[in-house]
Task: structure prediction
Amino acid sequence: KAATGFQEVLHRERKDWGGKRHEVISTAFAAHSSELSEEAQIAILTHHRTLPVDGTAGKEKAAIPSEQMPDEETAVWADMTSEFDANRVPFADFWKQVCEKIGRPDLIALATSALAGFKFHPAWAKQSPANKFGQLQTFSFERRHRAALYRGLLVTADHMASGHTLPKPFPDLRQATIYKGELRAFQEKCRDTKQNAILRAPTGSGKTESSLLWMQGNWRKNSRVFYVLPYTASINAMHKRLENIFGKENVNVLHGKASSYLYSLRGEDEKPLDAQAKAANLAQLSKEMYFPIRVCTPHQILRYALRGRGWEQMLGEFPQACFIFDEIHAYDAHLTGLILGAAKMATKWDARMLFASATMPRFLMQLIQETLGISTDQIITPNPKKETDREVLEKKRHEVEIWEGNLLSRLDEILPLVENCSSTLIVCNHVRTALQVFDRCEQKFGTGAVLLHSRFVPRDRNRVETDLLNKPLPRVFVATQVVEVSLNIDFYQGFLEPAPIDAEAQRMGRINRYGARPPALVVIMDEQVHSHKLYDADKSQRTVDILRNIENPVSEDVLVEIANQVYGEGYQGEQKLQFEAALHLESFEALETQLIAGTHRDWVDDVFDKEDERIEVLPSYYEKEHNAAVEAGNWLEAKSMLVSLPFSMVDRLRKDPKHWRSIEVYESQPWVVHKPYDAIRGLQLDATENERD
Result:
């Protein structure tokens, strides 16, 4: 960075340095140190960009230009060396100060060394006919692994230094108090089980505490903890829970909307721009080797395991780490295969895995066992022979009834039951249904009716969830499946649309949650209102058919047996092929023969950044307020007014002649959706457009 052109950019005397890379000069300079290994030189060379590529379209921007490499005399390399030499005198003085500061006077002489070529074997960066890079032919896995590890460490150090954040000593996570009461027998087994394990325990029985007790028993000094959940809403809720146990300074979230979530936690007296800077810094730190515990989606783990951008960091974090995959039943066949493939790879570095679920079907348990070699002794479930566990298994929290028809056709019978109960949960499969049911409930109960679905902007959703957690429950709460994944709430009765047993069990877990009252009424309709199949129709129908003939009240072990019946032998046909292909990906199984230091796979970012092809749009209701926040530089406040929708849905609105005014498209700012929105109902896509003014 001492090169004159780079300095002119820093001092804003010119726009850019013409694409010249400072890390090339850094590597040539550092190569004169006799103690610097080839692996360390590769880390320096690639700490911003990948190794030079063969001109493949779309990849050049991420790579170091080959003409800047000093392996042959080029005009660009000659310019770079002359620009560095032009600043030798002030640089030498500065370098002397650095060496004295770090106690390395032996390195002072480097400042006068001429910039020659690199001091590493050309195969590190050169292509060969047989392989994309010569590394695979020339170097052992240990050396390639070491170079990649150094790169991961250097990149995270560089990022933390840029954020003026020093690394901190790791706490002893075994010292935290997980549970103050008497442990159940299965919780004691979790605490005492070493190595990989499977945990199946009912909702409300202390499953989370059990997982953390397992973690404490398997944690090694300075090792990381990854608590993996399927949805950002459940991640955010778990983050708050773990903060209370381990301290705010030791826990953070890692998902695509982390900065917005962290901004939502700001204090009332905190200035918006100060809160924004703090949230952005915390979100960035969560990507680095900083927090001992991170709550994340599986995609963040897979981004590393599949060698996406920044994958080298896993080489410093996955060894001896503890991974808790909670709600493991929630994924489709392909994603389950990817998760198990990544888990198997990480266990080669002595990482420990726990897979947890309230309703884990037998077939899934067997797949996990076979993949990771988990013995029967390492499967933890409440033991009916132990009194404390028997209470959990025999606890009967629900009286389940199957009603013919759907929520709307039977609403006249539901509303009187709602009126005679202090709090009722109604769960719908579609936003449109939830709005229709809510309209009727609001007419009868006014502000005693509350609605929540996925088309609320974050600021309004946060308000609804905060009220639910901190105030008395409303008379009736109408929600979509968002209620399954995040809220620790306890209603007196519930009315549910049909869904597979695992989804219904999650919904039922929000009704008489702790079994402290007599069994609560849970009504499941045998039809859903709208025809679009949100869930697998066969599994939903099988669930309804089995529950129709179940003996009431329903115990927790019966719900598990129903899951076994509904899911049967597990993945079949196309699903089985998807699972097997994902589990046995070359990225997992051939790490030693495929690992190439200084490169990454661009397609991995494409897969995970699209987030199921969703787009954030701005309801016109918030347009003026959003634009004011943008002008004030408060981009996180602005993001709190956006709704995430499937791109296909937005595109359909944009192209449909009936809705030609609905979507306003912009290149450099969010698209605006002109549909009714308010803080009570959220975005109503099926209603008429808002007036333009």
Observations:
- The longest helix spans residues 141-162.
